[in-house]
Each structure stands twice: as C-alpha cells, then as structure tokens.
Write a structure and sequence with these properties.
The protein is α+β, with helices and mostly antiparallel strands. 36% of the residues lie in helices and 24% in strands. It has a five-stranded mixed beta sheet. Helix 3 links the parallel strand 4 and strand 5. Helix 1 packs across helix 2. The mean pLDDT is 95.
C-alpha cells in the first residue's frame, strides 16, 4: 500500500479525531477521549498553534497521524514531545509507523531539540519493541504522573 505523509490541515481534524478514538479503544479506554474536532481545529491552527500534526494518507483516507508539541526540560532544554503516533489497524505492518516516526525525528532535528520523548503503555509490547528497534530508550523505571481535571479541582480546594 502506498501512502503520503504531510502536515495536517484544519479540514483533517475529523479524521484525526477518528484515529484518536481508535487508539483509545485499542488502549482499553474507549470513553476517555474528551477532545473535540473544534478543540483540535482551535488548538492546532492559527497564530499560536499548541501542536503540530503529521497525517498519513492512503488514497483519499487519513490512515495515520503523529501529533507533537514542544516542551522544555530543565536538564536538556528544548524537547519535542510525541503525544501520539497512531496507525489505523488495517495499515499496521506496512512501514507506516516507521515513516511517521521518521517524519517526527526529522522535524525534531530541524527544530534543534535536545530530545524527543513520548510514553508507551507497559503492556504494549509491539510498540515497545518497535521503539527499541528504532534506538529509543524505554525508561521502565519512570512512572507517568497525572492530575486529571477532578484531581486538579480537589487539589485547589485543599489549598
């Protein structure tokens, strides 16, 4: 199968959200996605976009995405964060994941970042193996820490 990777356009955000929802189902969190197409359109485009998104097209269909944004490390400086790399189920094993990751790494290099970082679920061995084969260090001794919206409100109320 052939595909083309390009920067996302505002009009792609419905298809991007479909892939985000597909990932949520795969990660056993089918009801966790709260972001909307309007959120993606507002936050990814305009004068100060909060993220950059690469899409992979096959024919007229978007079949993969890589969504990234800048962070700052107190140890390293500029960091590009890969929020999600999603390949639709029917396109897995075609090299599309590699092509999307290649695009992210080239983009990070162009930006001059000191690191590209992302998370992977500890049970997602296919993804872990994929990333390690690409030279990534899966840091199994670090835990991700989140405060969700309710926890933020509870924290504020406890101050």
């Amino acid at each position: 199968m052939s595909y083309n990777i390009r920067l996302a356009k505002k009009s792609d955000m419905t298809a991007v959200l479909d892939l985000i929802n597909e990932l949520a189902v795969y990660e056993k969190e089918p009801d966790a996605v709260e972001v909307t197409v309007k959120d993606l359109e507002r936050d990814g485009f305009g004068k100060h976009p909060k993220f950059t998104c690469f899409v992979a097209e096959s024919g007229a269909r978007i079949v993969g995405i890589a969504l990234v944004y800048m962070r700052f490390s107190t140890w390293k400086g500029d960091v590009l964060h890969l929020e999600d790399l999603i390949v639709s189920e029917q396109m897995r094993g075609t090299g599309l994941g590699t092509a999307l990751l290649d695009e992210v790494v080239k983009y990070g290099d162009q930006l001059g970042v000191k690191r590209i970082s992302w998370e992977v679920l500890d049970w997602n061995e296919p993804a872990i193996n994929f990333y390690e084969k690409k030279g990534a260090n899966v840091m199994r001794d670090w835990d991700v820490v989140h405060l969700n919206e309710n926890a933020i409100k509870a924290y504020i109320n406890s101050i």
